[in-house]
# Entry
Amino acid sequence: MLLKLIPAETTIGFMRWRKIGFAFSALLILGSIALVAGRGLNLGIDFLGGTLIEVQTDGPADLSGMRADLNGLGLGEVALQEFGAPDTVLIRIQRQPGEEEAQRAALEVAKAAIDERVVEYRRQEFVGPTIGSELQEAAIYAVLSALAAIMIYIWFRFEWQFGLGAIVALTHDVIATMGLFALLQLEFNLSTVAAVLTIAGYSINDTVVVFDRVRENIRKYKRMPLAELFDGALNQTLSRTVMTSLTTLIALFALVFFGGEVIRGFSIALIWGIVIGTYSSVLVAVPLLLYLRPRRGDEEIAPGEGSGSGPQAAKG
# Structure
């Protein structure tokens, strides 16, 4: 027996909620922009440059004592935080004046100061200022290039109206994800950029499935009002959308709880992205088509045009 979380005969009127969805999305986007502008992102060592050390101590770490030892070394700003367990500490040391030799010297000085408290050095990373700046630019180019490529793909596969709706939904998802990181002050690093690109791919996959059904219904029900037609397409793909999202979320929650601190930010970003991506496919991308007026051949289909009659017409 096939498992179905959503009954096949579901007839939810998604288009009736489009204005509420647009209002919520507008607040979400404005709030995310305000958070990023106000609080800023907690940029990781990948982007800022400097030195990062992950250490394990014998028992719960004495953060105040370690901080006092490191602050007296004249290395500038030093940040310590518990990292996943009471005996694991993540230490960030600001970039030192000079080339790589200066950073390595600072690393050795810091290790000598805390050596008696540490039983294992788990990770040591150094990122120079030039590399950090290049990584920031590369991350921005990667995200923008992915969005542009997705828009072109949707444009050629469907029509420009679908491409515009998809890129608005994707931009919505990316900005909302940035807002989440600014709100929670999760570390924003190269793994996070990978998560943003993964979110874009997941979101567009969900949107393409719905757009395929919308295009099929436009060709099949030529006189049906678009709002009714879109509701039919969303309901017909709803079971697939819920099942895909649910199974992916199960795996991601396992990563959050058992995957360790290194990939926790990545996993949280993906969980948020799947939720917001599913929402944007249903209440942003498709409802926008009502106002963009997709065409079929040379005939433009107006939002309220047609004489189709409810769900009965949708079932043929």
